[in-house]
C-alpha cells in the first residue's frame, strides 16, 4: 500500500501530523507493507526557490498571514491550525 501525504512546507500542524502518521505506520502490524511518500507545496510566493525555511521559526501569525495572502479566512484557518482552540 502506498500513502501520499501533501503538506504545506511551513505548517507546524502538517509536520506534527506527518510525524504521527509515520509513528502509526511503524506500530501497524503490516507497517512493513506501507510506503509513505511525503510531498510538499508552499502557500506563499514569499519564499525564494532554493531557500530553507524552518517551521520552528514560523508562528501562528505568520501562518495566518500566508493564509490571508491566498484568500483563506483568518478565523477558520486559526480554528483548523489550533484544533478548535484559540490562543
How much of the polypeptide forms β-strand, as a percent range? 15-25%
Q: Uncertain runs with pLDDT below 50, 5 residues or more? A: none
Principal-axes geometry comes out as elongated
Strand order of the largest sheet: 1-2
Q: What is the total tally of β strands?
A: 2
Structural class: alpha+beta
Can you tell me about this structure?
- By secondary structure, the chain is of the alpha+beta class.
- It has helices at residues 12-27, 60-69, 74-81, and strands at residues 2-8, 35-41.
- A two-stranded parallel sheet has the order 1-2.
- The model has no long low-confidence stretch (mean pLDDT 76).
Give the SSE layout.
Blueprint: E1 2-8, H1 12-27, E2 35-41, H2 60-69, H3 74-81
Parallel strand pairs: 1-2
Helix pairs in contact: 2-3
Task: Provide key terms for this protein.
alpha+beta, two-stranded parallel sheet, 3 helices
Task: Give a brief description.
This protein is of the alpha+beta class.
Amino acid at each position: 500500500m502506498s500513502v501520499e501525504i501533501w503538506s504545506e512546507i511551513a505548517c507546524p500542524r502538517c509536520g506534527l501530523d506527518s510525524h504521527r502518521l509515520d509513528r502509526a505506520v511503524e506500530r501497524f502490524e503490516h507497517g512493513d507493507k506501507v510506503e509513505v511518500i511525503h510531498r510538499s507545496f508552499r502557500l506563499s510566493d514569499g519564499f525564494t526557490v532554493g531557500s530553507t525555511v524552518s517551521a520552528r521559526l514560523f508562528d501562528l501569525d505568520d501562518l495566518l498571514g500566508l493564509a490571508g495572502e491566498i484568500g483563506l479566512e483568518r478565523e477558520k484557518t486559526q480554528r483548523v491550525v489550533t484544533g478548535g482552540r484559540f490562543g
